[in-house]
């Protein structure tokens, strides 16, 4: 490998985000090694025992931790426990093992805009305090779990990710069949802000977090122009040439999804990527209508 090429271990490397990121990093010349639960893997890892081989961890330049229990769906106590353990306990275990490494590492850890809670029209930069609710408390604990690595001198970046848009996966892929039938519509009042980002910009920002030594601490991985749910609904319908006159009442969403509806579907988060913009990062997809039209052609 060249002098600027890194040996990077990635959790969630086969998922929607991880697979796209792994491809991008390999194209940039980095060596990407998937972290696996399989005991036969060179990078076997578990929440309970951490990395099976300490030597394998010492040979890495960076760890990118993306894996986590999905937050979508109706929550119960068991679902919440899995969401917490897959994020907080796993991050703490990795951070503790990284703390034992003598050479500096790069630890890039997934987080979420759920950190901010439901904040109405308030503009939310990385300096904004955390909000209220389960997702906010989870994100706070998730980021705090990486503290052992930070205290040991490793560079830690928290990726506060919004809704990642791509026809190939994630929320947009689930919406497309409904909107193509002309059955799409706003959620609740549609007044709530949606912090979105295209997949290609998310991948580029995460690669920047890995490569750029200036990036430290939390970063909002969202497009510069968050939109209200009603605006997103209109833009998506127009990109498909379909109507979107319907709406799903808030009470119906709450009946179906409970807490997830309140915190994940109806919460308003006007998040902007101030730190990345201040440091010169340029977005390829800044406006939702143009981004959705481009995605339709891919």
Layout of helices and strands:
Blueprint (H helix, E strand, L loop, with lengths): L6 E5 L4 H12 L3 E4 L10 E2 L3 E2 L2 H5 L3 E4 L11 H23 L6 E7 L10 E2 L9 H11 L2 H5 L3 E7 L1 E3 L4 H11 L4 E3 L5 E2 L1 E3 H13 L5 E5 L5 E2 H12 L5 E3 L1 H8 L1 H7 L4 E2 L2 H5 L9 H10 L1
Parallel strand pairs: 1-2, 1-5, 5-6, 6-8, 7-16, 8-13, 9-12, 10-15
Antiparallel strand pairs: 3-4, 11-14
Helix pairs in contact: 1-7, 3-4, 8-12, 9-10
Q: Spans of 5+ residues with little confidence (pLDDT < 50)?
A: none
Mean pLDDT comes to 93
At the first level of CATH, what is the class of the domain at 7-163 and 195-223 and 271-278? Answer: Alpha Beta
Helix content: 40-55%
Distance between the termini: 32 Å
Number of strands: 16
